[in-house]
Amino acid sequence: MNLPTHTDVLVVGAGPVGLALTASLAAKGVSTMLIDRQAEGANTSRAAVVHARTLEVLTELDVTEKLVARGIVVPHATIRERDRVLLHVDFGDLPTEYPFALLIPQDVTERILLERLVGAGGRVTRPCELTALSQDADGVTATMATGERIRARYAVGADGMHSLVRDQAGIAFRGDTYPQSFVLADAYLSGDVPDAEIRLYFSPEGVTVLAPLPGGRHRIVATVDEAPPAPGHSHVQGLLNTRGPQARPATVDEIVWSSRFRVHHRVAQRYRAGRMFLAGDAAHVHSPAGGQGMNTGLQDALNLASKLAAVIRDGADEIVLDAYETERLPVAEEVVSFTDKMTRVATVDNPVLRAGRNTALRALDWIPAVHRKLAMNLSELALDPQHDR
Questions:
Q1: Are 245 and 284 in the same domain?
Q2: pLDDT tens digits for range 176-197
Q3: Are residues 18 and 162 in the same domain?
Q4: How many angstroms separate the CA atoms of 131 and 51, rounded?
Q5: What is residue 358's predicted lDDT score, i.e. its pLDDT?
Q6: CATH number for 22
Q7: Domain of 227?
Q8: I need a labelling partner for 373 at 20 to 30 A (CA). Which of 28, 43, 316, 347 fits?
Q9: Is 168 among the domain residues?
């Protein structure tokens, strides 16, 4: 493959987080190599919501307006049990230039980030599989499946939940696995379906998210005891029949894409081990109930890039790099806690407790401060000191 023998930063994993991190470093003039074991990037929608705080930080890369132009602006969300609205969440009053959630497929987000990376003079080397990573006082040595080696001052693992970088760095991944599995599907629907709203349906069987996507499609995310390998038309229709709207049921006209996965709620014990760093799903994974996983990871990426550039390009003391963990680890812990509570509240199966929950939510719906707090948490603006007021 004739890989370069040296670079300032080696980034492992070319999902949205790795692409954003590398694009930011390349734009700052830092020598960076991005490798990925997959032969090509994402071609499915997967993570499909970009929140306000993420849109703010991505302005650094000049991609925010491109994302907004390709996505669907959603100004509010509701929490429901069947046809009954329990709680409204309005993003319109958020203290930001982006008072909405943006629904955009992950493959589109990745294409826009890749274009920015290439425009900054970078590229993705793929397929290129890392097999070992070691470090000493001066840098890291990465060994590829081909036997080739790369020497770098620093390495960043943006290589997902099963991160080899995290494993090689000896960093524990604390947490647990939800007993349920998750169904993910993009479909063409008819009936009572939202075109400018995210709906979170609570039911004893599990939580279900219904949201619009570009091109007239809709995203369905649902917890189930055991999902089939490839959830089909009848399975997704059954979920909507038992959990979704009743007065005007949602009908599945066509399944475009579907998948299943297990969800963990875990946070890395550390974000840095010497010259190795973690970002995105390598550092934290959690319930998709609030659509915050990719968002938290993209914010990790831009935060870490600025600190690496300060040290490598500007000659700042390496102590600057310690602030990455100090700033980002508490954010991940807060997001994991928030989404875990949301998932557990949504899936209460005791009828008495469920009735009490619904009554409480309807009462809280009259309190503007509750609406604001939920919108601030979902948008992740509450986790930014500049907005935490």
A1: no
A2: 877 778 899 999 999 989 889 9
A3: yes
A4: 34
A5: 74
A6: 3.50.50.60
A7: 176-264
A8: 347
A9: yes
User: Taking the CB of residue 229, how many other CB atoms lie within 10 A of it?
Assistant: 8
Query: Closest Cα partner for 328 from 309, 290, 310, 302?
Result: 302
Q: Are 206 and 183 in contact (CB under 8 A)?
A: no
Percentage of the chain beyond pLDDT 70 is 90
User: Residue 299 in contact with residue 281, Cβ under 8 Å?
Assistant: no
**pLDDT over 90 percentage in the chain:** 63
Residues 196 and 281 in one domain: no
Length of the chain: 389
Answer whether residue 223 shows pLDDT above 70: yes
Question: What is the spatial distance between Cα 283 and Cα 24, in angstroms, rounded to a whole number?
Answer: 19
248 and 286 in a common domain = no
Q: Which DSSP helix (H) or strand (E) runs through 148?
A: none
Task: Look up tokens 């993003």; give the residue.
Answer: 91
Which CATH number characterizes residue 208's domain?
3.30.9.10
Tokens at 29, concatenated? 């003039």
Residues 188 and 238 in one domain: yes
The answer to whether residue 136 scores a pLDDT higher than 70 is yes
User: What's the mean pLDDT in 300-304?
Assistant: 97
| Whether pLDDT at 288 is above 50 | yes
Q: Which residues contact 325 (CB under 8 A, 6 or more apart)?
A: 270, 271, 272
DSSP 282: G
Collapse the DSSP code of 204 into the 3-class scheme (helix H, G, I; strand E, B; otherwise coil) and give the result: coil
Identify the band that residue 125 occupies on the pLDDT scale cut at 50, 70 and 90.
Answer: very high
What total number of domains does the chain contain? 2
- In the block, which residue shows the tokens 């274009």? 115
Backbone angles phi, psi at 385, to 5 degrees: -55, -30
Contact present, 182 and 236 (Cβ < 8 Å):
no
Which single residue is written with the structure tokens 């997959």?
A: 38
Taking the C-alpha atoms of residue 214 and residue 237, their distance in angstroms, rounded to an integer, is 21
On whether both 165 and 311 belong to a single domain, the answer is yes
Residues in a beta bridge with 210: 199, 220
Quote the pLDDT of residue 2: 65
Task: Give the list of residues 6+ apart from residue 278 with CB closer than 8 angstroms, or none.
Answer: 156, 157, 163, 165, 166, 169, 171, 268, 270, 271, 272
Residues 188 and 218 sit within 8 Å (Cβ to Cβ): yes
Q: What is the pLDDT of residues 23-69, one digit of tens each?
A: 999 999 999 999 999 877 655 557 889 999 999 999 999 999 999 99
Do the Cβ atoms of 343 and 315 come closer than 8 Å? Answer: no
pTM, 2 dp: 0.91
